[in-house]
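Minutes, structural biology subgroup

Action item carried over from last meeting: produce the C-alpha cell record for MaoC-like domain-containing protein (Ramlibacter humi). EB confirmed the sequence was re-checked against the source entry. Recorded below for completeness.
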Amino acid sequence: MARRQVHLTREVFQGFAAVSGDAHPLHYDAAYAKSHGLRAPIAHGLLLVAITALGATPLSAQLHDSMVAMLGTQARFISPAYEGDRVDVSLTVLEIQPKSRNRCVAAFEVKVERGAELLASVQHQFMLRFSREEAAA
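Output recorded by EB:
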C-alpha cells in the first residue's frame, strides 16, 4: 500500500478553483460555509479525486513507462474535507486482469482519510503495458 499526506490549505482550494472555474462560496467563504452547517469551507469533490491520481502516488515512478491509458474513475464521497485538514491518501491494488501477453487492466482503490474517518474512496482503472521480460516472468 502506498500512502502520502496532503495539507488542504486555502491556497490549494484557491488554485483548484482557478484551474477548474468552480468558485462556489462553499469552497472559500467561511461565513457562507458556516451558514450552511459546515465548520469551514469544504474541498471541491474533484479536488479530492485529483489528489488520488495515480501520478500523485509513490507508485507512479514505478509505472510511468507502463502506462497506456486511463480507462475510468469512480468516486464515492462520504464526508467533507475541510480547509486546513491534513488528509492521508492511500492506494491499494484491487485487481490485475491480463488482456494480452504484454497488457493488463489494473484497478486501484485510493482512500482519502482524516485520521480514522474515511472521506472519499476513488477507484481508477488503467491499461498497463509490460516489457517482454516482465511478461515472461
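Discussion: The longest helix spans residues 10-20.
Next step: EB to file the record with the rest of the batch.
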